Amino acid sequence: MDKQLRSKIQLRNPVHFLALGFGSGLAPFMPGTFGTLAAIPLFWLMSDLSIWIYAAITLLVCIFGVSLCAKTAEDMGVHDHGAIVWDEIAGYLITMAAVPFHWIYVVLGFALFRFFDIVKPWPISYLDKNIHGGLGIMADDILAGVFAFACLQALIYFTPI
């Protein structure tokens, strides 16, 4: 990230801090991967909650993420800059819904979410290309999380540890 763009980001600004995944999106390479890694402690903190509370928090992460990402992108002057990784956090939390905290599931969920987020099969690619603004930043990762969730649930069902 160039210095001019970096000067537009203020980690002391709570909107930027959250949108940049607590700073993880500023990683010099693979910021989406680092943003997803930043979601793992959140999942760990939420893993013992009831499914309803987990779902409510995840829904709030998604809803507020639209505004967080839109404002940060506007401040940066770049739509969906790689440093904005709140969408990866939301997608990973969706992936891990109703999954017990176990390192194997954490790794499988991580790999599945990153796969769908990077490869972007249809209709994820459609959302990525055709929806703009904060909703556009969030939508493809939310759907990638749904796809990863379905695959992870099938793996857990058919090959429980």
Structure overview:
The chain has one domain. Helices cover 70% and strands 0% of the residues. It has 8 helices and no strands. It is mostly helical and 161 residues long.
The H-and-E topology, N to C, reads as HHHHHHHH
Strand content: under 5%
Number of domains: 1
State the distance separating the first and last CA atoms.
42 Å
Q: What Rg do the Cα atoms give?
A: 15 Å
User: Quick one: biggest sheet?
Assistant: none
Low-confidence stretches: none
> SS-based structural class?
mainly alpha
pLDDT averaged residue by residue? 95
The helix fraction, in percent, is: over 70%
- Would you report the number of β strands? 0
Tally the helices. 8
Shape: globular
Describe the structure concisely for a colleague.
With 161 residues, this protein is mainly α.
Topology readout:
Layout: H1 3-7, H2 14-19, H3 31-46, H4 51-76, H5 86-95, H6 103-119, H7 124-130, H8 133-158
Helix pairs in contact: 3-5, 4-5, 4-8, 5-6, 5-8, 6-8, 7-8
Q: What key phrases describe this protein's structure?
A:
161 residues; mainly alpha; 8 helices
